[in-house]
Structures are given as C-alpha cells and as structure tokens.
User: Fold this.
Amino acid sequence: MQNKDLLWNCRRGMKELDVAIEKFMATKYSNLSADQKQVFSDILKTDDGELFAWLIGSYEPENDHFKAMIKLLRDCVK
Assistant:
C-alpha cells in the first residue's frame, strides 16, 4: 500500500481511533519492519468497532501478528 493510501485508510469514523492512529503514525510507524507495516495495513481493514474493542482491551484479536501490533498501538497512546 502506498503512503497516501495508507494515510487515507488511517482516517476512521471514530475520533478516538483517529487520535490513536495519528499518534502512532507520527511516532512509531517509520520504525516498523516491512512485515509490521503490512500487519498494520491489514489491521486498518478491520471495522472500527472491532479495532476500538481491541485498543481498549475488551477482547484480543485471534491473529498473533495483530495482537503484537495492537500492543504497539496501545503502548503508543498510554
């Protein structure tokens, strides 16, 4: 995914998600490996409700790669 497409996909329907993802993009994204960047891109395809539930810890994603990325996102917004 190209950066402009990625940035567009970072825009969500929930202000809370926008704030968390924007902070992550500004502070952590450039340090991710290519594989991690792909996982992040895949997570952005998740519906807002599910992504928000993962971020607030209501439940965990089943995918181990998603779990690791959600932990990075959570750590970024603490």
